[in-house]
Amino acid sequence: MSQGVKPRRRYDSRRRDEQAAQTRRDIAAVAGKLFRERGYAGTPMPRIAAEAGVVVETIYRAFGSKASLFRAVIDAAVAGGAARADVPVEERPAIRAVIDAPDPRRQVELYAATQPGIHRRSGPLLRALFGAAATDPELKALWEELEAGRLAGQGRFVGMLAEHGHLRPDVSVEHARDVVWTLCSLAVHDLLVVARGWTEGRYQDWLATVMARELLAPPQGG
């Protein structure tokens, strides 16, 4: 009799994890669209769930809170897509190109080249977050967390330059980090591109020029 019994198939946890990750990406994509169109306060969780084809409880299980979902949407925008957000920063192609460039001025140019796209994708979300943070303590904490993360990330870029002896001798790592954090902020981007009408190309070139001047030691023999 045992010959006619089929063995029970082992549960494929990897497939379940892949499906859960895809569900998270789908929810984040829908939420990003709605947050851009309607703002944070104007996008209720039931609306996100309805458009994503899930129940509200699925969103809470996947993200924990609306603010955490908003954070995931911003992370995806900065990375250039929800799938890229799961990739370590150092392994993303644009950042890998910065790390691998042999010349410090080229590294600065490539780093500056990442900024217009980041601001284009994440700017609408961050502007909405900044406005809502004034009256929502949870969103205020999220804004501060994102800015702290940006400071740390740009500190790693500056640390790489310092490690290879490329910083100006009169500039500390902390000072250089603060300069990059300021120059690459959404506020500076919006002053030049939004308020003054600069093209993204002009902004990128200006950013590379100013960062190189403020951070890099002069070429040997120069």
Architecture overview:
The chain is an all-alpha fold. The chain has two domains: 80 residues, Tetracycline Repressor, domain 2 (Orthogonal Bundle), CATH 1.10.357; 135 residues, Tetracycline Repressor, domain 2. The protein is 73% helix and 0% strand. It contains eleven helices and no strands. α1 crosses α2 and α4 runs antiparallel to α7. The termini are far apart. The relative contact order is 0.09.
CATH topology call of the largest domain: Tetracycline Repressor, domain 2
Low-confidence residue ranges: none
Average pLDDT rating: 91
Structural class: mainly alpha
What is the total tally of β strands? 0
Strand content: under 5%
The helix-strand sequence is: HHHHHHHHHHH
CATH class of the largest domain: Mainly Alpha
How many independent structural domains? 2
Terminal Cα span: 88 Å
Assembly annotation: single chain
Query: What is Rg?
Result: 22 Å
Shape verdict:
globular
Tell me the number of helical segments per DSSP (H or I, 4 or more residues long): 11
How helical, in percent, are the residues?
over 70%
What would you say the CATH architecture of the largest domain is? Orthogonal Bundle
The largest sheet, given as strand count, sense and whether it forms a barrel, is: none
